[in-house]
Amino acid sequence: MTTTTKPAPPATAAPARRPGPVALTLRQGRLEITQFLRSRESVVFTMGFPIIMILIFAAIFSDEIAPGVSYTQYFITGMIATGLMTVSFQNLGIWIPIERDRGVLKRYRGTPMPKWVWFAGKVLMVVAIGIAETALLLAVSVALFDLELPGTAAKWLTFGWVSVLGVTACTLCGIAISSLARTARSGSAVVTPVALVLQFISGVFFVFTQLPSWMQQVAAIFPLKWMCQGLRAVFLPESFGAREPGGSFELDRVALVLVAWCVIGLVLCLTTFRWTTRRDG
Q1: Residue of 170, 228, 224, 165 lying closest to 197 (CA atoms)
Q2: Where are the membrane-spanning stretches (predicted)?
Q3: CA–CA gap between residue 140 and residue 10 (Å, rounded)
Q4: pLDDT in tens, 166-194
Q5: Where are the domains of the chain?
């Protein structure tokens, strides 16, 4: 008598494991960085603009603005702040309207991916490009213009929190201002004039105390002026603080204003950000 064995049931495939929040964030951040690097114009402008400006201004101005402080050293601190603002506020304010106009944001909203992942990817891109740009700018400044790097842990700590708060505020404001652009082409027209005006009145191209008093008061409303002031506390001698409008570097006020702009930027993002264009409803 023969016995028959029943065939084994087919193995069922294990359900695919969904990536966790960290994996999603890193994947989106890698995608954003790749897209940025593929845009040669953005890479050249973001990474090269601060260095080109330093080379130009260093060739024009070679005098000292204070004992032991050359104009070039003063200008470098402003360009570090400007570089951080460019990669965050300006780039996001220009590129988000382009993605919105092309329907990229609308498609993102229709996917199962949590909406916060898209924002996290933008933040990772800003952080990565900002670090690379700042490192390149510091390397060129040390090699060509004798910029002295911070010699104490306290100054490096100040450099860290000023940069983090400044980039956070500028990133949130860049996302918020992107909603003002009606089309992809108008993003640059909306954001670039704002960025240029802030640079001129915030002590980037000129010594801040030599600007008209009304201009100083207007600049004090916005974060770029305080980013520049905080970075001057890092890279310039302690004695230079007496030449600031408040008679010192006022790091406590720098922190207060930048934190306030982080809150303001977050509120503006939550209340104004749009995933679709006005014509899409």
Answers
A1: 224
A2: 43-62, 74-96, 116-144, 156-177, 189-208, 254-273
A3: 64
A4: 999 999 999 999 988 888 788 888 899 99
A5: 21-280
Helix (H, G, I), strand (E, B) or coil at 130: helix
Cα distances (Å, whole numbers) of residue 173 to 82, 117, 118, 169, 215: 15, 18, 16, 6, 21
Q: Which two tokens stand for residue 170?
A: 């500028």
* Dist. CA 167–CA 123, nearest whole Å: 9
- H or E element at residue 64: strand 64-66
Model-level pTM? 0.87
Which residue, among 248, 244, 237, has the nearest Cα to 216 in the 3D structure?
244
The secondary structure of residue 1, as a DSSP letter, is: -
Sole residue written with tokens 């201009």: 215
C-alpha 81/C-alpha 87 separation (Å) is: 10
